Amino acid sequence: MSELLTSSTVDLYRALISQSASRIATRFAEVGRPSSGASRAELQTLVAAVDLAGPGVGASHAIREIDELFLEHAVWFHHPGYAAHLNCPVVLPAVAAESILAAVNPSVDTYDQSTVGTLMERRLIETAAGWVGFESGDGVFTSGGSQSNLHALFLAREAAIATSDLTRAEALPRLVLFATASSHFSVGKSAFLLGLAEDAVIEVGDDGEGRMLPEALDAAIAAASADGRVPMAVVATAGTTDRGVIDPLASIAEVTVQRGLWLHVDAAYGCGLLVSRRYRHLLAGIDRASSVTVDFHKSFFQPVSSSALLVREPRDLAAGAWHADYLNPLENEEPNQVDKSLQTTRRFDALKLWSTLRAIGPHGVGDMFDAVIDLAAEASDLVEEDPELELVGRTQLSTVLFRVRPEGVGTEEQDRLVAAVRRVLFESGRALVAKTVVDGRPCLKLTLLNPQTTLDDVRIILGTVKDAATTLAGIDDELGVVGAKA
To answer: Is the pLDDT of residue 6 over 80?
Structure first.
Protein backbone atom coordinates (compact mmCIF):
# COMPACT_ATOMS: atom_id res chain seq x y z
CA MET A 1 0.00 0.00 0.00
CA SER A 2 1.33 3.43 -0.85
CA GLU A 3 2.48 5.87 1.82
CA LEU A 4 -0.54 8.05 1.03
CA LEU A 5 -3.00 5.36 2.16
CA THR A 6 -1.35 3.83 5.24
CA SER A 7 -2.66 4.40 8.75
CA SER A 8 0.50 6.36 9.56
CA THR A 9 -0.24 9.06 7.00
CA VAL A 10 -0.70 11.76 9.64
CA ASP A 11 2.61 10.90 11.31
CA LEU A 12 4.36 10.85 7.97
CA TYR A 13 2.86 14.24 7.12
CA ARG A 14 4.15 15.73 10.37
CA ALA A 15 7.60 14.26 9.82
CA LEU A 16 7.93 15.45 6.23
CA ILE A 17 6.65 18.95 6.95
CA SER A 18 8.97 19.19 9.94
CA GLN A 19 11.93 17.97 7.90
CA SER A 20 11.16 20.35 5.06
CA ALA A 21 10.66 23.32 7.39
CA SER A 22 13.90 22.55 9.23
CA ARG A 23 15.94 22.30 6.05
CA ILE A 24 14.58 25.47 4.47
CA ALA A 25 14.89 27.40 7.74
CA THR A 26 18.54 26.40 7.87
CA ARG A 27 19.01 27.60 4.32
CA PHE A 28 17.37 30.94 5.11
CA ALA A 29 19.62 31.36 8.13
CA GLU A 30 22.83 30.44 6.36
CA VAL A 31 22.46 31.68 2.78
CA GLY A 32 25.17 34.23 2.09
CA ARG A 33 24.41 35.29 -1.47
CA PRO A 34 21.42 35.27 -3.80
CA SER A 35 22.55 32.23 -5.79
CA SER A 36 25.25 29.58 -5.75
CA GLY A 37 26.88 30.79 -8.94
CA ALA A 38 27.01 27.25 -10.34
CA SER A 39 27.19 27.17 -14.12
CA ARG A 40 24.39 25.89 -16.28
CA ALA A 41 26.57 22.96 -17.31
CA GLU A 42 27.20 22.05 -13.66
CA LEU A 43 23.50 22.30 -12.85
CA GLN A 44 22.54 20.26 -15.89
CA THR A 45 24.92 17.52 -14.80
CA LEU A 46 23.40 17.45 -11.31
CA VAL A 47 19.86 17.28 -12.69
CA ALA A 48 20.70 14.61 -15.24
CA ALA A 49 22.28 12.43 -12.55
CA VAL A 50 18.93 11.93 -10.78
CA ASP A 51 17.27 8.65 -11.71
CA LEU A 52 13.61 9.51 -12.30
CA ALA A 53 12.83 6.12 -13.87
CA GLY A 54 14.15 3.88 -11.11
CA PRO A 55 12.58 2.66 -7.87
CA GLY A 56 11.61 5.20 -5.24
CA VAL A 57 14.12 6.22 -2.58
CA GLY A 58 11.60 7.09 0.14
CA ALA A 59 10.06 10.39 1.14
CA SER A 60 12.73 11.45 3.64
CA HIS A 61 15.54 10.79 1.18
CA ALA A 62 13.64 12.65 -1.55
CA ILE A 63 13.33 15.74 0.68
CA ARG A 64 17.03 15.58 1.50
CA GLU A 65 17.80 15.33 -2.20
CA ILE A 66 15.62 18.40 -2.91
CA ASP A 67 17.61 20.28 -0.29
CA GLU A 68 20.93 19.30 -1.85
CA LEU A 69 19.83 19.88 -5.45
CA PHE A 70 17.24 22.66 -5.46
CA LEU A 71 17.75 24.63 -2.26
CA GLU A 72 21.51 24.57 -2.64
CA HIS A 73 21.21 26.25 -6.03
CA ALA A 74 17.96 28.21 -5.73
CA VAL A 75 17.73 31.94 -6.38
CA TRP A 76 16.97 33.62 -3.05
CA PHE A 77 14.77 36.68 -3.48
CA HIS A 78 14.99 37.56 0.21
CA HIS A 79 18.74 38.14 0.03
CA PRO A 80 19.65 41.85 -0.26
CA GLY A 81 21.98 41.02 -3.13
CA TYR A 82 18.98 40.08 -5.28
CA ALA A 83 17.81 43.15 -7.20
CA ALA A 84 17.04 41.86 -10.68
CA HIS A 85 13.38 41.27 -11.55
CA LEU A 86 9.93 41.81 -10.07
CA ASN A 87 10.36 38.98 -7.58
CA CYS A 88 9.58 39.69 -3.95
CA PRO A 89 10.45 37.98 -0.68
CA VAL A 90 7.28 36.55 0.80
CA VAL A 91 5.58 37.23 4.12
CA LEU A 92 5.49 34.26 6.48
CA PRO A 93 1.71 34.15 7.08
CA ALA A 94 1.31 33.56 3.34
CA VAL A 95 3.94 30.80 3.41
CA ALA A 96 2.04 29.06 6.18
CA ALA A 97 -1.20 29.39 4.21
CA GLU A 98 0.55 27.97 1.14
CA SER A 99 1.40 24.81 3.04
CA ILE A 100 -2.21 24.49 4.19
CA LEU A 101 -3.77 24.89 0.75
CA ALA A 102 -1.23 22.47 -0.74
CA ALA A 103 -2.14 19.83 1.82
CA VAL A 104 -5.91 20.21 1.51
CA ASN A 105 -5.65 20.76 -2.27
CA PRO A 106 -9.02 22.42 -2.95
CA SER A 107 -10.05 23.61 -6.38
CA VAL A 108 -12.10 26.79 -6.41
CA ASP A 109 -13.66 26.32 -9.83
CA THR A 110 -16.91 24.98 -8.39
CA TYR A 111 -18.53 25.47 -5.01
CA ASP A 112 -18.85 21.77 -4.27
CA GLN A 113 -15.04 21.41 -4.48
CA SER A 114 -14.22 24.25 -2.14
CA THR A 115 -17.32 25.51 -0.26
CA VAL A 116 -15.99 28.08 2.20
CA GLY A 117 -12.92 28.65 0.03
CA THR A 118 -15.17 30.01 -2.72
CA LEU A 119 -16.80 32.39 -0.24
CA MET A 120 -13.44 33.54 1.13
CA GLU A 121 -12.11 34.27 -2.35
CA ARG A 122 -15.25 36.22 -3.20
CA ARG A 123 -14.91 38.24 -0.02
CA LEU A 124 -11.29 39.05 -0.91
CA ILE A 125 -12.26 40.06 -4.44
CA GLU A 126 -14.92 42.34 -2.98
CA THR A 127 -12.28 43.85 -0.67
CA ALA A 128 -9.73 44.36 -3.45
CA ALA A 129 -12.37 45.89 -5.72
CA GLY A 130 -13.13 48.29 -2.89
CA TRP A 131 -9.47 49.33 -2.75
CA VAL A 132 -9.69 50.21 -6.44
CA GLY A 133 -12.91 52.15 -5.95
CA PHE A 134 -15.26 49.70 -7.68
CA GLU A 135 -18.28 50.03 -5.38
CA SER A 136 -19.98 46.88 -6.64
CA GLY A 137 -17.11 45.35 -8.58
CA ASP A 138 -16.21 41.72 -9.11
CA GLY A 139 -13.32 39.67 -10.33
CA VAL A 140 -11.44 36.42 -10.04
CA PHE A 141 -7.99 35.24 -8.97
CA THR A 142 -5.63 34.27 -11.80
CA SER A 143 -2.21 32.71 -12.27
CA GLY A 144 -0.49 36.05 -12.92
CA GLY A 145 -0.53 39.42 -14.61
CA SER A 146 -0.27 38.01 -18.12
CA GLN A 147 -3.40 35.92 -17.65
CA SER A 148 -5.20 38.84 -16.02
CA ASN A 149 -4.33 41.07 -18.98
CA LEU A 150 -5.44 38.42 -21.45
CA HIS A 151 -8.71 37.98 -19.60
CA ALA A 152 -9.34 41.73 -19.50
CA LEU A 153 -8.68 42.18 -23.20
CA PHE A 154 -10.89 39.19 -23.98
CA LEU A 155 -13.74 40.91 -22.13
CA ALA A 156 -12.96 44.17 -23.93
CA ARG A 157 -13.00 42.37 -27.28
CA GLU A 158 -16.37 40.81 -26.55
CA ALA A 159 -17.80 44.14 -25.42
CA ALA A 160 -16.53 45.88 -28.57
CA ILE A 161 -18.01 43.23 -30.87
CA ALA A 162 -21.33 43.27 -29.00
CA THR A 163 -21.72 47.04 -29.42
CA SER A 164 -20.60 47.22 -33.05
CA ASP A 165 -22.71 46.73 -36.15
CA LEU A 166 -20.25 44.15 -37.46
CA THR A 167 -20.27 40.38 -37.32
CA ARG A 168 -17.47 38.71 -35.37
CA ALA A 169 -15.70 37.77 -38.61
CA GLU A 170 -15.92 41.35 -39.86
CA ALA A 171 -14.86 42.92 -36.57
CA LEU A 172 -11.81 40.82 -35.64
CA PRO A 173 -9.43 42.13 -38.33
CA ARG A 174 -10.51 45.72 -37.65
CA LEU A 175 -10.29 45.80 -33.87
CA VAL A 176 -7.45 47.83 -32.35
CA LEU A 177 -6.23 48.65 -28.88
CA PHE A 178 -3.94 51.40 -27.62
CA ALA A 179 -0.90 51.23 -25.34
CA THR A 180 2.54 52.77 -24.98
CA ALA A 181 5.83 51.16 -25.93
CA SER A 182 6.39 50.63 -22.19
CA SER A 183 3.31 48.46 -21.71
CA HIS A 184 3.86 44.84 -20.69
CA PHE A 185 4.70 42.37 -23.45
CA SER A 186 1.56 40.41 -22.56
CA VAL A 187 -0.55 43.15 -24.17
CA GLY A 188 0.81 42.34 -27.62
CA LYS A 189 0.76 38.62 -26.91
CA SER A 190 -2.88 38.84 -25.80
CA ALA A 191 -3.82 40.59 -29.05
CA PHE A 192 -2.21 37.71 -30.94
CA LEU A 193 -3.98 35.06 -28.86
CA LEU A 194 -7.30 36.83 -29.28
CA GLY A 195 -7.05 36.59 -33.06
CA LEU A 196 -6.58 40.30 -33.71
CA ALA A 197 -4.65 41.67 -36.66
CA GLU A 198 -0.85 41.89 -36.52
CA ASP A 199 -1.07 45.68 -36.30
CA ALA A 200 -3.88 45.69 -33.73
CA VAL A 201 -1.78 47.25 -30.95
CA ILE A 202 -1.38 50.94 -31.76
CA GLU A 203 1.53 52.56 -29.95
CA VAL A 204 0.65 55.81 -28.21
CA GLY A 205 3.22 58.54 -27.67
CA ASP A 206 4.63 59.15 -24.19
CA ASP A 207 6.27 61.97 -22.25
CA GLY A 208 9.80 60.70 -22.88
CA GLU A 209 9.86 58.78 -19.60
CA GLY A 210 7.30 56.13 -20.51
CA ARG A 211 4.06 57.78 -19.37
CA MET A 212 1.21 57.90 -21.89
CA LEU A 213 0.23 61.31 -23.24
CA PRO A 214 -3.58 61.68 -23.10
CA GLU A 215 -3.61 64.05 -26.08
CA ALA A 216 -1.60 61.55 -28.11
CA LEU A 217 -4.08 58.84 -27.11
CA ASP A 218 -7.04 60.90 -28.26
CA ALA A 219 -5.34 61.65 -31.58
CA ALA A 220 -4.46 57.96 -32.08
CA ILE A 221 -8.06 56.89 -31.46
CA ALA A 222 -9.37 59.51 -33.88
CA ALA A 223 -6.88 58.48 -36.56
CA ALA A 224 -7.68 54.77 -36.19
CA SER A 225 -11.41 55.44 -36.41
CA ALA A 226 -10.95 57.60 -39.51
CA ASP A 227 -8.98 54.75 -41.05
CA GLY A 228 -11.89 52.34 -40.64
CA ARG A 229 -10.52 50.53 -37.59
CA VAL A 230 -12.67 49.70 -34.56
CA PRO A 231 -11.18 50.94 -31.25
CA MET A 232 -11.54 48.19 -28.67
CA ALA A 233 -9.62 49.18 -25.54
CA VAL A 234 -6.94 51.37 -24.00
CA VAL A 235 -4.31 49.76 -21.78
CA ALA A 236 -2.84 52.13 -19.21
CA THR A 237 0.03 50.97 -17.03
CA ALA A 238 0.34 51.62 -13.31
CA GLY A 239 3.96 50.66 -12.91
CA THR A 240 5.93 49.96 -16.08
CA THR A 241 8.36 47.06 -15.79
CA ASP A 242 11.54 49.01 -16.48
CA ARG A 243 11.00 52.62 -15.44
CA GLY A 244 8.38 51.94 -12.78
CA VAL A 245 6.27 54.90 -13.88
CA ILE A 246 2.52 55.34 -13.87
CA ASP A 247 0.38 56.61 -16.72
CA PRO A 248 -1.85 59.62 -15.89
CA LEU A 249 -4.89 57.50 -15.18
CA ALA A 250 -7.41 60.27 -14.52
CA SER A 251 -6.64 62.10 -17.77
CA ILE A 252 -6.64 58.86 -19.76
CA ALA A 253 -10.00 57.97 -18.22
CA GLU A 254 -11.40 61.26 -19.48
CA VAL A 255 -10.44 60.29 -23.02
CA THR A 256 -11.84 56.78 -22.78
CA VAL A 257 -15.13 57.99 -21.30
CA GLN A 258 -15.55 60.55 -24.07
CA ARG A 259 -14.70 57.94 -26.70
CA GLY A 260 -16.80 55.21 -25.09
CA LEU A 261 -13.83 52.85 -24.81
CA TRP A 262 -12.91 50.10 -22.39
CA LEU A 263 -10.05 51.22 -20.11
CA HIS A 264 -7.88 48.48 -18.68
CA VAL A 265 -5.27 49.41 -16.08
CA ASP A 266 -2.37 47.02 -15.76
CA ALA A 267 -1.41 47.57 -12.12
CA ALA A 268 0.46 44.28 -11.75
CA TYR A 269 3.48 46.15 -10.35
CA GLY A 270 1.85 49.23 -8.81
CA CYS A 271 -1.06 47.51 -7.04
CA GLY A 272 0.72 47.84 -3.70
CA LEU A 273 -0.18 51.52 -3.89
CA LEU A 274 -3.82 50.53 -3.32
CA VAL A 275 -3.02 49.98 0.36
CA SER A 276 -0.30 52.63 0.71
CA ARG A 277 -0.78 55.33 3.31
CA ARG A 278 1.56 57.78 1.55
CA TYR A 279 1.48 57.09 -2.18
CA ARG A 280 -2.11 56.01 -2.92
CA HIS A 281 -2.64 59.30 -4.81
CA LEU A 282 -0.43 58.00 -7.62
CA LEU A 283 -3.36 55.80 -8.66
CA ALA A 284 -5.88 58.65 -8.84
CA GLY A 285 -8.41 57.84 -11.55
CA ILE A 286 -8.03 54.05 -11.39
CA ASP A 287 -11.62 53.79 -10.16
CA ARG A 288 -12.81 54.91 -13.61
CA ALA A 289 -11.28 51.88 -15.35
CA SER A 290 -13.37 49.04 -16.71
CA SER A 291 -10.87 46.44 -15.49
CA VAL A 292 -7.69 46.30 -13.42
CA THR A 293 -4.89 43.75 -13.18
CA VAL A 294 -3.34 43.28 -9.74
CA ASP A 295 -0.38 41.03 -8.96
CA PHE A 296 -0.27 40.29 -5.27
CA HIS A 297 2.87 38.20 -5.83
CA LYS A 298 4.73 41.39 -6.67
CA SER A 299 3.89 44.27 -4.38
CA PHE A 300 1.81 42.44 -1.76
CA PHE A 301 4.74 40.07 -1.02
CA GLN A 302 2.80 36.90 -1.75
CA PRO A 303 4.12 33.54 -3.00
CA VAL A 304 3.59 32.83 -6.68
CA SER A 305 0.93 32.56 -7.86
CA SER A 306 -1.37 35.27 -6.55
CA SER A 307 -2.93 37.63 -9.08
CA ALA A 308 -6.43 38.82 -9.90
CA LEU A 309 -8.52 40.52 -12.52
CA LEU A 310 -10.97 43.08 -11.12
CA VAL A 311 -13.88 44.56 -13.09
CA ARG A 312 -16.11 47.52 -12.32
CA GLU A 313 -19.22 45.89 -13.78
CA PRO A 314 -19.78 42.28 -12.65
CA ARG A 315 -21.90 41.54 -15.72
CA ASP A 316 -18.84 41.93 -17.94
CA LEU A 317 -17.43 38.64 -16.62
CA ALA A 318 -20.36 36.75 -18.15
CA ALA A 319 -18.75 37.09 -21.58
CA GLY A 320 -16.50 34.13 -20.77
CA ALA A 321 -19.10 31.87 -19.14
CA TRP A 322 -19.28 28.30 -20.45
CA HIS A 323 -21.41 25.51 -19.08
CA ALA A 324 -20.93 21.76 -18.77
CA ASP A 325 -23.56 19.41 -17.37
CA TYR A 326 -21.10 17.61 -15.11
CA LEU A 327 -19.52 20.80 -13.75
CA ASN A 328 -21.71 23.91 -13.72
CA PRO A 329 -25.10 23.20 -15.30
CA LEU A 330 -27.28 26.20 -16.06
CA GLU A 331 -29.90 25.26 -13.46
CA ASN A 332 -27.29 25.13 -10.68
CA GLU A 333 -27.56 28.09 -8.32
CA GLU A 334 -24.28 27.43 -6.50
CA PRO A 335 -21.60 30.16 -6.78
CA ASN A 336 -19.38 28.37 -9.29
CA GLN A 337 -16.40 30.58 -10.08
CA VAL A 338 -15.56 28.68 -13.24
CA ASP A 339 -18.33 30.86 -14.70
CA LYS A 340 -15.96 33.82 -14.32
CA SER A 341 -12.54 32.31 -14.91
CA LEU A 342 -10.55 31.33 -17.99
CA GLN A 343 -9.26 28.39 -15.94
CA THR A 344 -11.15 25.36 -14.74
CA THR A 345 -9.14 23.70 -11.98
CA ARG A 346 -7.77 26.57 -9.94
CA ARG A 347 -5.77 26.82 -6.71
CA PHE A 348 -7.17 28.53 -3.63
CA ASP A 349 -4.46 31.20 -3.86
CA ALA A 350 -6.70 33.69 -2.11
CA LEU A 351 -5.97 31.92 1.19
CA LYS A 352 -2.43 33.35 1.20
CA LEU A 353 -3.59 36.94 0.90
CA TRP A 354 -6.38 36.29 3.40
CA SER A 355 -3.81 35.06 5.93
CA THR A 356 -1.57 38.07 5.28
CA LEU A 357 -4.33 40.64 5.71
CA ARG A 358 -5.49 39.03 8.93
CA ALA A 359 -1.92 38.86 10.27
CA ILE A 360 -0.56 42.31 9.43
CA GLY A 361 -3.47 44.23 7.89
CA PRO A 362 -3.60 46.04 4.54
CA HIS A 363 -1.66 49.03 5.86
CA GLY A 364 1.07 46.68 7.02
CA VAL A 365 1.47 45.56 3.43
CA GLY A 366 1.27 49.15 2.19
CA ASP A 367 4.00 50.26 4.59
CA MET A 368 6.28 47.55 3.23
CA PHE A 369 5.70 48.75 -0.32
CA ASP A 370 6.26 52.35 0.75
CA ALA A 371 9.61 51.26 2.19
CA VAL A 372 10.90 49.94 -1.14
CA ILE A 373 9.68 53.07 -2.93
CA ASP A 374 11.62 55.20 -0.45
CA LEU A 375 14.68 52.96 -0.85
CA ALA A 376 14.59 53.34 -4.64
CA ALA A 377 14.52 57.13 -4.29
CA GLU A 378 17.56 57.02 -2.00
CA ALA A 379 19.34 54.59 -4.31
CA SER A 380 18.65 56.87 -7.27
CA ASP A 381 20.29 59.71 -5.33
CA LEU A 382 23.32 57.49 -4.71
CA VAL A 383 23.65 56.74 -8.41
CA GLU A 384 23.18 60.36 -9.40
CA GLU A 385 25.92 61.50 -7.02
CA ASP A 386 28.44 58.88 -8.18
CA PRO A 387 30.71 60.06 -11.05
CA GLU A 388 31.20 56.44 -12.15
CA LEU A 389 27.47 55.88 -12.61
CA GLU A 390 24.74 57.45 -14.72
CA LEU A 391 21.10 57.52 -13.63
CA VAL A 392 18.64 56.83 -16.43
CA GLY A 393 15.50 58.69 -15.32
CA ARG A 394 13.53 58.63 -12.09
CA THR A 395 11.02 56.01 -10.98
CA GLN A 396 7.69 56.39 -9.21
CA LEU A 397 8.00 52.91 -7.75
CA SER A 398 11.06 50.82 -6.94
CA THR A 399 13.27 50.38 -10.00
CA VAL A 400 16.62 52.08 -10.55
CA LEU A 401 17.95 52.31 -14.11
CA PHE A 402 21.60 53.19 -14.52
CA ARG A 403 24.76 52.75 -16.53
CA VAL A 404 28.30 52.33 -15.33
CA ARG A 405 30.95 54.62 -16.79
CA PRO A 406 34.49 53.92 -15.61
CA GLU A 407 36.95 56.73 -16.18
CA GLY A 408 38.25 56.85 -19.72
CA VAL A 409 35.56 54.56 -21.16
CA GLY A 410 33.48 55.92 -24.03
CA THR A 411 29.77 55.57 -24.69
CA GLU A 412 30.09 52.58 -27.01
CA GLU A 413 32.19 50.67 -24.52
CA GLN A 414 29.82 51.60 -21.68
CA ASP A 415 27.00 50.01 -23.65
CA ARG A 416 29.02 46.83 -24.13
CA LEU A 417 29.79 46.70 -20.43
CA VAL A 418 26.12 46.38 -19.49
CA ALA A 419 25.65 42.77 -20.55
CA ALA A 420 29.14 41.80 -19.44
CA VAL A 421 28.74 43.23 -15.95
CA ARG A 422 25.36 41.60 -15.49
CA ARG A 423 26.82 38.26 -16.64
CA VAL A 424 29.82 38.45 -14.30
CA LEU A 425 27.61 39.20 -11.30
CA PHE A 426 25.17 36.44 -12.23
CA GLU A 427 27.91 33.85 -12.66
CA SER A 428 29.51 34.79 -9.35
CA GLY A 429 26.23 34.58 -7.45
CA ARG A 430 27.27 37.61 -5.38
CA ALA A 431 24.59 39.96 -6.68
CA LEU A 432 21.85 39.69 -9.27
CA VAL A 433 20.85 42.71 -11.34
CA ALA A 434 18.86 42.94 -14.55
CA LYS A 435 19.60 44.56 -17.88
CA THR A 436 17.24 46.23 -20.30
CA VAL A 437 17.19 48.75 -23.15
CA VAL A 438 15.93 52.31 -22.73
CA ASP A 439 15.81 54.79 -25.61
CA GLY A 440 17.87 52.45 -27.74
CA ARG A 441 20.71 52.04 -25.22
CA PRO A 442 21.29 49.15 -22.82
CA CYS A 443 21.37 49.83 -19.11
CA LEU A 444 21.42 47.98 -15.82
CA LYS A 445 18.39 47.78 -13.56
CA LEU A 446 17.84 47.30 -9.87
CA THR A 447 14.36 46.16 -8.92
CA LEU A 448 14.02 46.73 -5.19
CA LEU A 449 11.18 44.71 -3.68
CA ASN A 450 12.66 43.69 -0.35
CA PRO A 451 11.52 45.95 2.51
CA GLN A 452 14.46 44.72 4.61
CA THR A 453 17.09 45.77 2.08
CA THR A 454 19.02 48.81 3.30
CA LEU A 455 20.81 51.62 1.52
CA ASP A 456 24.09 50.05 2.62
CA ASP A 457 23.04 46.84 0.85
CA VAL A 458 22.47 48.87 -2.32
CA ARG A 459 25.88 50.50 -1.90
CA ILE A 460 27.43 47.04 -1.83
CA ILE A 461 25.63 46.03 -5.05
CA LEU A 462 26.69 49.24 -6.79
CA GLY A 463 30.26 48.76 -5.59
CA THR A 464 30.27 45.23 -6.99
CA VAL A 465 28.95 46.56 -10.29
CA LYS A 466 31.66 49.22 -10.49
CA ASP A 467 34.42 46.75 -9.61
CA ALA A 468 33.25 44.36 -12.31
CA ALA A 469 33.04 47.15 -14.88
CA THR A 470 36.52 48.39 -14.04
CA THR A 471 37.96 44.91 -14.41
CA LEU A 472 36.09 44.19 -17.63
CA ALA A 473 37.11 47.48 -19.19
CA GLY A 474 40.73 46.58 -18.57
CA ILE A 475 41.62 49.86 -16.91
CA ASP A 476 45.16 50.14 -15.66
CA ASP A 477 45.02 52.85 -12.99
CA GLU A 478 48.72 53.68 -13.33
CA LEU A 479 48.94 53.84 -17.11
CA GLY A 480 45.38 55.00 -17.79
CA VAL A 481 45.14 52.48 -20.62
CA VAL A 482 41.73 51.23 -21.67
CA GLY A 483 41.48 47.93 -23.47
CA ALA A 484 38.08 46.41 -24.08
CA LYS A 485 37.73 42.91 -22.69
CA ALA A 486 33.95 42.60 -22.71
So the answer is: no
